[in-house]
Amino acid sequence: GGMGGGHAMSPEEAQQMFGQFFGGADPFAGMGGGMGNMGGQDGTSSFSFATGGPGGGFQSFGGPSMSGGMPGMGGVGGGGMDPISMMMGQMGGTGGPMGGMMGPMGQMGGPSQAAEPPQFDAIPTGTLVSLQNLKSAPERNGDRGVIRQYISSTKRYMIQIEDSQDTMSVKALNLLQHVGVRIHNIASQTELNGKSGTIMAWSDANQRYNIYVKALAKVISLKVDNCILDKGTVVQIVGTSRDELNGKWGTITEWIRDGDKYNVQLSASQIIRVKMDALRV
Q1: 64 Cβ partners below 8 Å, 6+ apart?
Q2: CA distance 146 to 4
Q3: Where is the composition biased (Gly residues) (predicted)?
Q4: 35-87, pLDDT tens digit by residue?
Q5: Which of 73, 80, 210, 218 stands the most exposed, by the fewest C-beta atoms within 10 Å?
Q6: Cβ 17 vs Cβ 176: under 8 Å
Q7: Answer CATH for 231-280 from 1.25.40.10, 3.30.230.10, 2.30.30.30, 1.10.287.1490
Q8: Is the dihedral of CA 166, 153, 4, 281 positive or negative?
Q9: So what's the pLDDT on residue 10?
Q10: Annotated domain spans of the chain
């Protein structure tokens, strides 16, 4: 979502949020590892959700040989399902840049309808989001849900709230998209570069994302320009020198390595080039 004056989420709070995706429990508990905090340079900080069992390294989540694990979850380092994917599946499928198909709640019966023209400034139906900076219903801040519909006349999204039948009509500025990124240009921890992750939270205070990195089973705090957003992600333009662009939404069509910029499509006829740090989800 856009910028806002909301609460700045620390990595520790992101850890708690991550646990809440699984009913308030740490899905990596019982694996034999602890919560190993580690500091980083280049503005990175991270914490681990239990980094391995007696044999060291990252162990699988569950399975017959793991006591206290979560049955049905695949391995971190192997080809199994990661916890973010599992959570998305529980929400009825995802669309947009996160991939996947709409689940049962998104299926429509009856005859097929003609495809509508693409909306480059609308977050795709099926995208997993969290609510933020709500003033009229602050108790809902932090709740998660899935976008079920975009209403262009009001510029609001209908959100199906997780684990309930409740829906809410919400502005884009009150949403944080849990979309995919690729880590980029960390000089002091080069082993992180190229790894994929999912945005878990945004800290307005220090202008950083908390990113869950599947391969490491940990959350790290990164600057905006250290996170390459996936192609197809819908973003808001902020803080550019062109006032007429600030606040607009568009779809990323390409990341340009030279200059660390994106091509962002605002409409069927307009594509602009924007610096990485001038975009938010």
Answers
A1: none
A2: 21
A3: 33-42, 52-72
A4: 333 334 454 554 433 333 333 332 323 333 333 333 333 333 334 455 556 55
A5: 80
A6: no
A7: 2.30.30.30
A8: positive
A9: 56
A10: 1-53+70-99+119-230, 231-280
